[in-house]
């Protein structure tokens, strides 16, 4: 298996400057870049393509992050490779730092499938007229918090502060802007009552330590790192904002999904099924293995892909905020898009066809796991 890492400093065998720039564009930029990619980059076997048997290779993208734990475990323990190699398909992996960059790679044909946040997947689907991406399964749910300086007691105290999110228009960015609006605080791209600065997670930690920002709406493990390593406190746990009406259980909301190029799925359905069987095996292991084994495996893979392991207390706290499920939590998507529209970061769009769980049903029927959360 080959790893290609895409970072802000420059990728190892990366996709070029354009894809790197896409990492910071968020939802607005993605609407432009996604459309450009799908209209200017030739895609093999596009319209009218027919199944062509197993693919020679599957190129899978993911983040070196706990919210992408099924990808970390699936690659570390060989779950994907075991399913793919039976049909002669080789696995190649690419590590990304942000959803828009991964979506751009999907659009450009540089990868075939990716673990993404739901908002980048929605944006790519809308920008491409429903042709750029299909969500096949859920991967992680929960695990996002607004953490701030201890002196900030409530929403009113945030007026005039500067907060960070991982990327403009990303899942946490939209969540923060939506929550601030419910508190009577205006935000816009030029400023507003609260300044929002899209910032890489690692830089957010350093800026918070240096007093340059006042808090951030972050996924795990970064919320836990600010709390345990930089003295931040939790002002909002996003789980408290989901009452279960959209997702079936209080506190449950999609954080990471597994998506695929629709063209690849059409041409290589057997390969997609194998990918999903590996995904289910990874979820089953995460949800049934001893906690110490899960922590050790994830931390080792994070050290390998991100360059540094997490402190034991951080990874333990972070995993306690997350759940791992193949359920894409489809009912959440209209709300997520509506929030992005209300925040001025998206246009209304149809989501019909974004989620296709037919391959997931086939994979579940072919495997005897059945114990992963949401099965």
Automatic annotation (TrEMBL):
Assigned keywords, A-Z: Cell inner membrane, Cell membrane, Membrane, Signal, Transport
CDD domains per UniProt: PBP2_NrtA_CpmA_like
Pfam families xrefs: NMT1_2
InterPro entries: NrtA/CpmA_ABC-bd_dom, TAT_signal
Location in or out of the cell: Cell inner membrane; Periplasm
Annotated family: Belongs to the bacterial solute-binding protein SsuA/TauA family.
Name of protein: NitT/TauT family transport system substrate-binding protein
Species the sequence originates in: Paeniglutamicibacter sulfureus
């Amino acid at each position: 298996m080959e790893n290609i890492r895409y970072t802000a400093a420059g990728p190892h065998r990366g996709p070029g400057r354009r894809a790197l720039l896409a990492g910071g564009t968020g939802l607005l930029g993605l609407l432009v870049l996604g459309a450009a990619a799908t209209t200017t980059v030739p895609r093999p076997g596009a319209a009218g393509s027919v199944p062509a048997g197993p693919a020679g290779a599957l190129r899978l993208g993911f983040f070196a992050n706990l919210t992408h734990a099924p990808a970390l475990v699936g690659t570390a323990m060989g779950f994907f490779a075991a399913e793919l190699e039976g049909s002669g398909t080789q696995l190649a992996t690419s590590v990304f730092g942000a959803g828009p960059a991964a979506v751009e790679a999907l659009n450009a044909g540089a990868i075939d499938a990716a673990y993404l946040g739901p908002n980048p997947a929605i944006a790519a689907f809308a920008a491409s007229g429903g042709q750029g991406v299909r969500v096949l399964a859920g991967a992680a749910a929960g695990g996002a918090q607004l953490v701030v300086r201890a002196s900030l007691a409530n929403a009113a105290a945030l007026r005039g502060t500067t907060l960070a999110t991982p990327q403009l228009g990303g899942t946490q960015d939209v969540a923060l802007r939506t929550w601030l609006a419910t508190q009577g605080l205006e935000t816009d791209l030029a400023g507003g009552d609260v300044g929002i600065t899209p910032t890489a997670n690692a830089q957010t930690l350093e800026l918070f330590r240096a007093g340059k920002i006042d808090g951030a709406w972050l996924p795990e493990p970064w919320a836990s790192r600010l709390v345990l390593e930089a003295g931040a406190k939790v002002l909002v746990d996003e789980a408290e904002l989901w009452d279960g009406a959209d997702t079936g259980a209080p506190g449950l909301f999609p954080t990471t999904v597994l998506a695929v190029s629709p063209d690849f799925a059409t041409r290589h359905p057997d390969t997609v099924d194998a990918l999903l069987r590996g995904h289910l095996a990874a979820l089953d292991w995460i949800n049934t293995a001893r906690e110490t084994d899960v922590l050790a495996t994830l931390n080792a893979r994070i050290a390998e892909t991100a360059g540094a392991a997490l402190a034991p207390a951080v990874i333990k706290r972070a995993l306690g905020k997350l759940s791992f499920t193949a359920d894409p939590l489809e009912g959440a998507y209209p709300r997520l898009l509506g929030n992005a529209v209300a925040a001025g970061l998206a246009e209304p769009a149809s989501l019909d066809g974004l989620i296709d769980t037919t391959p997931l049903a086939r994979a579940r029927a072919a495997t005897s796991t059945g114990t992963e959360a949401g099965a």
